[in-house]
Please model this.
Amino acid sequence: MTAVIAAAGAGLEARRWPRKALTVAAAFACALLIPNAMLVGGGSYDDHTVFAYIGWLMHRGFAPYRDVWDHKGPLLYYLNWLGWAITPHSTVGIGILQAAVYLIAFAVLIRILAGTFGRLAVLLSLLFGVGFLARAGEGGNMVETWAVGAIALCHYIVFDASRRKPELWHFALITSSFVSCFWIRPNLCALPGIALLSLLVVVQLEIGYKSALRLLGFCTLVALVETGLVLYPIWRTGTEHDMWSAYFTYNADYTRVVNWKLRMYAILQLKGMIKVLPLAYAAVLGWFLLLRNVLKRAAPSIPISFVYAAFVTLSFPVEVLAYIISGRPYYHYWAPLAPTMTILSAVAFYSLFERVKLWKMPVRVAIAALIAAAVLYQARMYILVLRLDAPHDSEIRIARYVDGVTTSRDRILPVGDVVPSVAIALRARRLPASPYIFQLPMIHHANPQSSIQRASFIASVRRNLPAVIVSTPGIVG
Model:
């Protein structure tokens, strides 16, 4: 009898391995299909070149916020520093880390989808997820693309915990995801925060408030430990004040000056995303289907638990509001929505295909043709994105010129538009003459320290006379 049970268990385990291998292979395919500029040595003019340049400078003793100024979270710069540590002579290491984040995101999404929805619904939702990140990711190494893995992981944790009793590791991972998102960009905490609150409410209802309070204390401890690890390098370099001034004060002012009309205009960017990604309409439909089932206190037509359905229903609008808080209409702000919208699109496709079984053949053919047209249209958008992410010839030529007329000890001064001049400095591998590698903050009306920064900029240029000034068209070029 024991031998029979052991043989049955071995057979079950043998069947699991192909499924796991297929999940990993599918996740790899999805991750590699998303344009990743750093993986091919750098892309077009975009913020990712600024972050890569800061990571490169950190290996040469530059401290973020003080020696090279930017206003993003410290964890973003650590990731770029780590990428350069992996491949010291190229940005490929950064691209590998970004691809790993995408891999984690799609691996956990596939774990949710594959065991819940039909194969065709899973395939179409993954196609949409890849297309969404291809457009919103803008070549990768953007602030928001680094949070996609943590947000997808929170989805899986709530999904897993909703099917059984929440465990300690669920809370540890959600808290870690929350803290990681906070130290990349605070508004990315929306979904991890809702995930944490959802599990605490489940524990309070099923076990009691004392258990929920103990778990909250545990989460607080995890958050403090991870925050300490993130801030330790800042403390070592003595840049606490510089970090606070850039990451909190400047960003608060940057957000404060934008009125709600501009924030509503930012939503139009999401509408623009949907226009080039017709499959996104399925995600919106999926949200309404989930909302209807949650309001009925059950999800009879959708094979997911009530807790997870309520979590996704609540998180989607909260995420949208969180991502428009800065009021800037940039596509990459929507990248963290990819996991949620992928799940919602799967809900819609599953519900549609369940109903299609009852419809006549002409209707089935029409729906199949409509979906095929949407997939082909999205493929056209994907090709256009690949062209946009290609490096500019002028950038490469100027970088070669700078490399030819300067030495590695010379300083150069990037001036002009926010990114092109920095991209040239990165390709030329030259140190900046000033901490302000882009000058927009010094003339920004929302920056109360602009006059101090202008004085610091002039003083640093006098102290580190640049061998070359790389001036590109722009507001301050």
Q: What stands out?
A: The longest helix spans residues 2-33. The first strand starts at residue 411 and ends at 415. The chain has two domains: 22-387, 393-471. Confidence is low (pLDDT under 50) at residues 1-15.
